[in-house]
Specification:
There is one protein chain. α10 runs antiparallel to α11. This protein starts with 5 loop residues before the first helix and ends in a 7-residue tail after the last helix. It has a single domain, classed as TIM Barrel. By secondary structure, it is an alpha/beta fold. Helices cover about 50% and strands about 15% of the residues.
Length: about 290
């Protein structure tokens, strides 16, 4: 199965009402683990990279890893640049081969956000790539992008005008979701998703998925959330697994990095496998 577009992945999910895990990876081990899990459960998958990861590893090296790991992939996959306010980074990643981007201009006034998003969509189309847009900041800082202050929500009319004017392929509304670790069960505005989809049938991106309940996921996916972002849960799994296995190594006084890598990779696979089953994408590969 060759690499496919973000649009093909989310449009199918939107039509059939399942969610596709969009998982933020940050090194070779997490990228491979996420892809291995997708192949195992026959799920489409969206591999996401943050601006911080692109800068720390380097766009060319990161894309070379992606090419190597997906050369003979058996399930539909897409490579997405998450929450990027920097137009230069967007241009760099599109030129190298990312096939979708989230231009995050939510800190700008809506009119300026819309103007620049139109430009990004035009640029992406030149590469056959797709664009996710947002006009409201998702609460919380993720990989150095965002704010802990709750942003004001725009009206339905403003959101629809933005979607129609820009031609974005996916839209990410604020519905009470947040990046990072929830301190309590989030209170979500489910009807906002339904209202958007009823007025303009377009796949919705659900951000801040780490920590939501299965019931919340199922409800939002049925309303049209076709792309479900997971970042914090993978970081926690990776670091907690690393810590636990380092403690075992210390107890046994056996310091073998490949043993650590296998254990951590297994936990990454377990997490991603569970996400695909929870979101309903397992078995949906074509």
């Amino acid at each position: 199965m060759p690499i496919v577009s973000l649009k093909e992945i989310v449009d199918r999910a939107f039509q059939e009402r399942y969610g596709v895990p969009a998982v933020n990876v940050f090194n070779d081990l997490t990228m491979q683990g996420v892809l291995d899990a997708a192949v195992e459960v026959r799920s489409p998958i969206i591999v996401q990279t943050s601006v911080k990861t692109v800068r720390s590893i380097g766009a060319k090296i990161l894309f070379a890893m992606w090419q190597s790991m997906t050369a003979d992939i058996e399930v539909p996959v897409a490579l997405h640049l998450d929450h990027c306010p920097d137009r230069d980074v967007i241009s760099e990643c599109l030129a190298i081969g990312w096939n979708s981007v989230l231009f995050d201009a939510s800190a700008l006034p809506v009119a300026e956000n819309q103007r620049q998003t139109i430009e990004v969509v035009k640029e992406a189309r030149g590469y056959g790539a797709h664009v996710e847009g947002e006009i409201e900041s998702i609460t919380g800082v993720e990989d150095g992008v965002g704010s802990d202050q709750t942003a004001a929500r725009q009206t339905l009319d403003v959101s629809l005008a933005f979607i129609e004017a820009t031609g974005v392929d996916v839209f990410a509304p604020s519905i009470g979701n947040a990046h990072g670790v929830y301190t309590s069960k989030p209170t979500l505005d489910f009807d906002r998703v339904s209202d958007l989809v009823a007025a303009h049938p377009l796949p919705i991106a659900l951000h801040g998925g780490s920590g939501m309940t299965d019931a919340q996921f199922h409800d939002l996916i049925q309303r049209g959330c076709s792309k479900v972002n997971i970042s914090t849960a993978l970081k926690m799994t990776y670091l907690q697994s690393t810590l636990a296995n380092l403690r075992l190594a210390e107890q046994a006084d056996k310091w073998d990095p490949p043993t650590l890598f296998r254990a951590v990779s297994g936990d990454v696979v377990d997490l991603t496998r569970g996400l695909a089953r929870t979101f309903g994408s397992a078995g949906k590969a074509w």
